[in-house]
Amino acid sequence: MNKFRLIIFAVILIVFVTAVCACGDSTSVQYTMPGTSEEGGTAVGASGAQGSIGATEEQSGIVTNEEQSSAGDSGTQGGIGAKEAGKSDFSANSTENGELYDVISTGYNEPFVVVSGDGIEGKMTFTLAQLLAIPDAAFEHVYSTINNWPTPRFYAARGVRAASLLEAAGVLDTASVVTFRSYDSYEVMLTRKQLLEDAQYYFPAVEDRSDEGAVNVAPILAYEFKEGTQDISKAIPDDFCLIIGQRNYLEHTNHAFVENLSEIIVSSEQPEQWREATIFPASGRIPVGDSIKLQHPDFGLVKLYYTLDGTDPTELSTMYNPSTYQLELNKPIVFTESATLKVLTVGFGREDSSIAVFEIVVDPS
Fold it and tell me: Burial of 53 by CB count in 10 Å (0-12 exposed, 13-18 middle, 19+ buried)?
C-alpha cells in the first residue's frame, strides 16, 4: 500500500515540474508604437520607456547627459535621449489618427513636435534632426524678456526659426492663429502678426528700461537654452521651448515661453479682438483726490495701457497692471482734476482692443 502511494506521489511531482518548466519558456513580446510597422524601424516604446532620458553619446549636435545640468525627468515623451549618433535628411513624417511616433529613418529617440490644424497642408511630425536639416532654419542668440513679477531676464538659446518650421509644414495663406502646447497642456496662442510679422528684438539694456543696442531676433523652437545668462555657450540641451523676442523693451513676454513644447496647432480662424477695459466707479465722477480702477474680464491675460492727456495709448504708455503676483503694484489712478482717460488692452493670441475713452469728472467740493 505504501509503495502504491509513493508511486502516485512521484507521478504527480513529475507532472507539476513539467508544467512549471513549460510556463517559464514563454515567448517574449515585442512592442511597437501605433503608426509604425514591426519592420519599419525601432519603435519609440521598444525599450520600455517612451522618449526615455539617458543619452550616452551625441546625436544631431546634442551633448551627452553628463554635460547636461538638467535635461528633464526620465520617461518624458520625446525627451532628449539618443543612444548613439544618428543622421536624418529633412523629410517630415506624416501622422494618422492622432498618433505620435519617432522618426523611422534614424530609429532613435529624439525631441519631436507635431504640427496640425487647418492652417497647414497636412498634419506632420518633425524631429530635431529634421528641423536642423531645413535650410537656413538654425538660429542662436541671447533673448531679453520680462516676466509677470515683473523681473527682466535673459535667455541664451539655440534653436530653429518658427517661420522655417511653419513653411516646411506647408503653412497656408489663411493661417491666422498659432497655438503652442506643452506636454502638460500649458499653451500660448499667438496671432500670425504677433509671431511672424511684428519685429522682435533682444534688448541688452532691458534692465535699465532702455532700447539702446537693440538687435533683431527671430522667434524659435529652442532645443538648447539657459535662463539667466547672456553667454550662448552656456545653453544646454532640453526639450523644445518656444522663445520669442520683445517687440519693445517694456513688453512682458516670459509667460509666452512654452517649455516642453510638444504640439503646434495652426488655425485659419480669424483671431478675436480683446474686449475694452471698463472703469470703477462706472460713472467716472469722483471727489478730488479719489481714484479710478481699471477692470477687465481677462485681467491676468492682458496688459492695460493708459494716458491722461488725451493722446492715444500705445504699448509704451503707462502700464496699469505690471504684476500678476505683486498686486500692490497694480495701483488705481488718482485724480486731482478732470481728465480724459484712454485705455488700450493688449495680449497674445488676439488683436488689440479698440481704445476705450472715459471722461473723468473731478468734483472739487
Answer: middle
| pTM beyond 0.90 | no
For the chain, domain boundaries: 87-267, 278-363
Q: Do domains 87-267 and 278-363 have the same CATH topology?
A: no
Q: Alpha helix locations (H) across 25-161?
A: 128-132
> Is residue 149 within 8 Å of 252, Cβ to Cβ?
no
Long-range contacts from 204-211, C-beta under 8 angstroms, 24+ separation: 204/142, 204/144, 204/230, 205/249, 206/144, 206/145, 206/146, 206/152, 206/154, 206/246, 206/249, 207/152, 209/249, 209/250, 210/249, 211/248, 211/249
How many residues are present in the chain? Answer: 365
CATH architecture of 278-363: Sandwich (2.60)
Q: How far apart are CA 256 and CA 152, in angstroms?
A: 14
Q: What is the Cα–Cα distance from 176 to 179, expressed in whole angstroms?
A: 10
The residue ranking higher by pLDDT, 139 or 111, is 139
Mean pLDDT of the chain: 79
Residue 98 half-sphere exposure, CB side, CA atoms within 13 Å? 1
Q: Which residue has the higher pLDDT, 111 or 286?
A: 286
Q: Give the closest residue to 277 by CA, choosing from 317, 250, 239.
A: 317
Which residue, 322, 319, 292, is CA-closest to 307?
319
Least confident span in 37-41, 118-122, 318-322? 37-41
Query: What residues does 140 pair with on adjacent strands?
Result: 158
pLDDT attached to residue 364: 84
CATH T-level fold of 87-267: Sulfite Oxidase; Chain A, domain 2 (3.90.420)
CA distances from 304 to 255, 323, 348 (A): 16, 11, 13
Q: Strand (E) positions, 187-249?
A: 187-191, 200-202, 215-217, 220-227, 236-243
